[in-house]
Amino acid sequence: MIKRFIRRVLGLGSAATLRVPREKHRLARAAISQGALKTCDGLRGAGFAAYVVGGAVRDLLLGIEPKDFDVATDARPEQVKPLFRRALLIGRRFRLVHVMVGQETVEVSTFRAADPETAEKNEHGRVLRDNVFGSQEEDARRRDFTVNALYFDPATEEIVDYHGGLADLRKRVLRMIGDPETRFREDPIRMLRAVRLGAKLGLTLDPATRAPIRELAPLLEMVPPARLFDEMLKLLLSGHASACLRQLREDGLHHGLLPLLDVILEQPLGERFVTLALAQTDERVRTDRPVSPAFLFAALLWHEVLAAWKARQGRSERPLPALESAMDDVLNAQCEKLAITRKLTATMREVWSMQPRFEQRAGQRPYRLIESPRFRMGYDFLALRAASGEVSADVEAWWRAFQQADAETRKAMLMPETAPKTRRRRRRKKPPSADTPQTP
Ligand code: ATP
Ligand code: MG
User: Fold this and answer.
1) Residue 357 domain-assigned?
2) Closest ligand by atom to 163 CA
3) pLDDT tens for each residue of 357-374
4) How far apart are CA 83 and CA 101, in angstroms?
């Protein structure tokens, strides 16, 4: 017993001693997806080891339905591929195999070592490349949290547990494998993963794991923007975005992510707006309804746009061009840190620039607005603005009614034309000039 403990502390445990039988963990083969079972069976049939690993094992043990199944094996990618009818080699850095079974895609990765001695790092300790195949034990050690390093063998229904992940799951603790500071330096994204997984799984971050985060938070600024964006998107669409953002603020992690998010959250209207947007998104995710990342990012940055818009109008820029420029300002500032994709920013712009058009409820304009392809998203955005108190509830109620009304009612709802008449009147006051004919 003591011997085993010492071996474990030193990371010397052997697979044989760490195999936990089904009676002790209660995860059965039947809980694994068809695709992952076929993949593991196929690999095993060819003489390789094959385990379901990572998030899926963890989620199943917690009674959560996994998003997808990953398989880890000692077979090299080029040995995996020919075993399956529909399989693709993917990735340049780490080569993986995607095995397709029916609708399902199973990601198969070869055991990998992340040798801290040989891995290429930057001056802050961030690992730039680790691409060496290794043993299962090494593969477990390169994973981030103990609960993410559990290997389920569908053939024997045993779980291989090198780092006490099963015990941590029972205690509901999220604990970093190895020295937390070193592991966060290797990959600062792990700080965001800690927050997201903690919220999603209802696990408490182990105090030693939490301790270095505040100080290391600035390292996030050096993470490539595309990776940061992917992780932020996962976080925002986790169904626990509100809780995650609260935690990010508490840990001082929000600065580099959405610059000025802290400023927005300090304005009462901005905070209310963002809080509502996140609560609505979480609710949709949890009830399996679709959510639009563009809508969410548009919401997170709206009060930034509003502030920039107001500032430009204060410098006597005309409202609509000022809004265009304000959107540029905000998107340029954000995209430096966070690579929001082009497709997303295009939709965000559409939703934002639609907003002033909701003020115009006369003539043909409401009909044109309601026909625009993003109307629904624009209207939902308006509803959020109304709920946060930024625009009058009457405007939102008008548009809600207008959408549902028949032709007759719509006509009766239209506001009297005012703006163009004023302009015409002003023009008439101008002294007639010789070369422009006057309309009677
Ligand atoms: P979810 O799928 O719910 O987002 P996950 O833990 O499965 O959570 P993935 O990104 O699918 O996350 O990663 C699969 C596994 O790869 C993880 O369980 C973990 O073992 C390992 N892993 C992922 N990202 C890292 C990282 N940054 N550092 C170390 N290990 C990681
Ligand atoms: Mg996963």
Assistant:
1) no
2) 1
3) 999 998 899 999 999 999
4) 13
| SS3 readout for 130-158 | CCEECCHHHHHHHCCEHHHCEEEECCCCE
How many other C-beta atoms lie within 10 A of the C-beta of residue 100?
A: 15
* Residue 68 annotated among the catalytic residues of the structure: yes
CATH of the domain at 82: 3.30.460.10
Residues of the domain holding 162 = 18-171
End-to-end CA distance of the chain: 103
* Catalytic annotation present for 139: no
Indicate whether 330 belongs to any domain: no
Distance 83 CA to ligand 2 centre (A): 23
Q: Is 288 tagged catalytic?
A: no
82 occurs within a structural domain: yes
Active-site residue identified among 74, 130, 139, 144:
144
In this prediction, residue 181 has a pLDDT band, given cuts at 50, 70 and 90, of very high
What separation in angstroms does the CA of 140 have from each of 143, 204, 393? 6, 21, 55
Residue nearest to atom 9 of ligand 1 (CA): 55
For residue range 69-110, what is the model confidence (pLDDT) as tens digits? 999 999 999 999 999 999 999 987 668 999 999 999 999 999
Residue type, 179: D
* Total structural domains within the chain: 1
**Is 438 domain-assigned?**
no
Region for 202 from its dihedrals, namely left if φ exceeds 0, alpha if ψ lies in -120 to 50, beta otherwise:
left
- pLDDT confidence bin for 427, thresholds 50/70/90: very low
Pocket residues: Cβ below 6 A from ligand 1 = 54-55, 67, 70, 143-144, 148-149, 187, 189-190, 193, 234
Ligand number, closest to the Cα atom of 203 = 1
